[in-house]
Amino acid sequence: RLVTKGVTEIKKEKSFFSVHTGDGHSEHARAVIVAGGKLPRPLGVVGEKEFLNRGVTYCAWCDGPLFAGKDVAIIGGGNSALDAALNIERTVKSIVMINVTPELTGDPIMIDKITSAHHIRVLNDTEVVKINGEKFVESVTLQNHKEKSPSDIAVEGVFIEVGSLPATDY
């Protein structure tokens, strides 16, 4: 049964568990498995929600093949972003990595692989301020911390790889 309002209580009875849900139902079982997970950390910029699944994605492993032969941006500078870039580098046409910190912060061996790839460009000290397009992503507006005015870069995909938040609610 699909639970739409979450679990409100789990009680151990004599030989079973009683699980109560927010929609007033209860289930009985001999075992309860609590499976946590993670949620992607959002950027919180204009265009992120509007272009979700229309060029904005949080999983290079899942959605990378959809961007074969295209120019894409990967947002982030840690291991998640570096891993995403290395995963899709042979599939896409080019990658621009947009990193808000002064340097990439991932493992040195991964950074070496990124910097030696001819079709991956890294923009440090830069943040995305907007994701643009009509029906699908067409570009991102960037602000370099050392420059006064923002600039646009044409991309057809945006992979947001800035970490995740724990999903521990029932």
Low-confidence stretches: none
| Main pleated-sheet profile | 5 strands, parallel
What's the overall geometry?
A: elongated
Sequence of strands across the biggest β-sheet: 5-12-6-7-8
Determine the mean pLDDT: 93
In terms of structural class, how would the helical and strand content be classed?
mainly beta
Head-to-tail CA distance between termini: 15 Å
Strand runs, count: 13
* Total of DSSP H or I helical runs spanning 4+ residues: 3
User: Order of SSEs, N→C?
Assistant: EEEEEHEHEHEEEEEE
Question: What's the short version?
Answer:
With 170 residues, this protein is mainly beta.
What would your notes on this structure say?
With 170 residues, the chain is mainly beta. Helix content is 14%, strand content 37%. It has three helices and 13 strands. It has helices spanning 60-63, 79-88, 108-116; strands spanning 7-12, 17-21, 26-29, 37-40, 56-57, 71-75, 94-98, 120-123, 126-133, 137-144, 151-154, 157-160, 164-167. Helix 2 packs across helix 3 (108-116). The model has no long low-confidence stretch (mean pLDDT 93).
Distinctive features:
five-stranded parallel β-sheet; three-stranded antiparallel β-sheet; single chain; 170 residues; 13 strands; elongated; 37% strand; mainly beta
What is this structure's SSE topology?
Layout: E1 7-12, E2 17-21, E3 26-29, E4 37-40, E5 56-57, H1 60-63, E6 71-75, H2 79-88, E7 94-98, H3 108-116, E8 120-123, E9 126-133, E10 137-144, E11 151-154, E12 157-160, E13 164-167
Parallel strand pairs: 5-12, 6-7, 6-12, 7-8
Antiparallel strand pairs: 1-2, 2-3, 4-13, 9-10, 10-11
Helix pairs in contact: 2-3
